[in-house]
Amino acid sequence: MENQGRLSIIIGVEQDENTIVKVLRQAEKLCPLEIVVVVHGSRDRSLEQVLTYAPTSAMRVYAYPYALGEDVWRAIGAQEAAGDVWLFLEGKQIIAAQQLQPFVRLCYRGTDIALRQSHPFFGRKNSGQDSVQLAKCFLNSLLERGELGSSSMDDLPFAMTREAAVSIGTHHLFVPAAAHLIALQKELRVAHVRTRQKRSAAREAKAAERARAGTKALTDLGDHLEAFSLWQREAK
Amino acid sequence: MDSPTCGQNLVSVIIPTHGARNAERLAHMAKQIAPATEVIIVYASLCSQPADIGCVAEAKVVAAGKHATASECHAIGAQHATGNVLLFLPEEGIFPPASLRKYIAPLQRDYDLVLSAGGRMLTKGRLSTVRCACALLNDLLGQKQLGSASLETAPFSLTRTALEAIGPHKLQVPATALVSAVQKGLAITTVAPVSRERKSSAANQGVAKAKSLVLQEHAKAIQLLLQDQNVRGALPDGERHRILVQVPGLLHLRSVFYQQSREKEGDGWGAKRKERSKRARKRVQSRQKRSH
């Protein structure tokens, strides 16, 4: 198996007691070198579920009694990962192993960052009403990568090589839009992977999107504004 | 110089152009838009020679730089306009005059600025990156109802008061001009765009702006919008403990658990359970029988 000596799976867990075991099972099917789990600010039984889980791969759990804040777990997990290719997953998002493998495979074949393909405006009545999606599209087109649509490092899952992460700076990973900007500025090979979603998963994604209308959406938009400021600073 | 009474009703129509071929027709069309019309034709490739400039009847002809964009032509035209209402047309824009009157009517009510409504984000399955940028800027300006409308897309019109508030020179960068218009509290509305009588040919696209330039201007406009705030536009930071990624993990006040894989688990840490041989299994079984 090509993943055995090379793949680190990094999973962020918060209040995910209902899904984390299923996510771990799918992750294990990839036979990775290691699984790095960052549990933070968990008030439910997520940590207990992770610790009682008997893995077939080596697993390290970093448990923080406080919430790290949006996406900080990515940078923490990246600092601890030992593999050549890193796959980032969320504890609340169950994705089948066969859908995850293409991300990793792209990285083995020379891509630096493999993102989830996203075309937000297809078949929508109120097309273009989501500021975050607009910001993602704008960031890609500003850096002459319009073909990426609204695909972004903001969306999970995505995979990246260790070299790519070092080139970006692992400490930048907690502001995904800024990391995405740096990756495109450094002309890293960024590609996207088409994922098939089941109807139920699509429904869940829509519900999550609706929920994003709150603070998460504002944080994501703020991240993009931070990235634009970074672009402006570099342009000067 | 026009009298103030004349200026109140006067509509200045500003048309950028790259060649002199349709100048007469453009001037004639613009004259029919309103009873009192001042036509300003801005030539992008004309040297300021009086002989050339005076060649179009009933129109004021102004020269712009050879590589001037449509927006730069609009800004130059605005500086020469004397009317109380300014209507900006696209390059070589031949429209039915009656259809352009809808850009003037809202200005006679309470509006200061009338834009052409932006189209869809997707046209024939392709994403319009410029419209995307315009829609994002409008969103950030708190003008979501404008969709992807922008000063980038002519026709658009504004009042003299609006022009003075924005500054005529700012029209050369439409995205920043729109930011200024919103920050000055101007009332903005959109109307459905009109279709041209004749589409401009590829040869007439001299003043068209490069897409990358439009995007860069939008990025600068976003920065202008953020200049009085922090880099995140005062939006939440997701309660991030940013400091943690700069200090070693030992100082993180965290617990670390190392879980070995099932295969390796056995009699002790890292030990591997040995599989019993057939002979050993038989020996155990016979021992058990004897004990019974």
Automatic annotation (TrEMBL), chain B:
Q: Where is this region: Disordered?
A: 261-292
Q: Per the record, where are the segments of Basic residues compositional bias?
A: 273-292
* Superkingdom classification of source: Bacteria
Q: Where is the composition biased (Basic and acidic residues)?
A: 261-272
Name the chain's protein. Glycosyltransferase
Source species? Brevibacillus gelatini
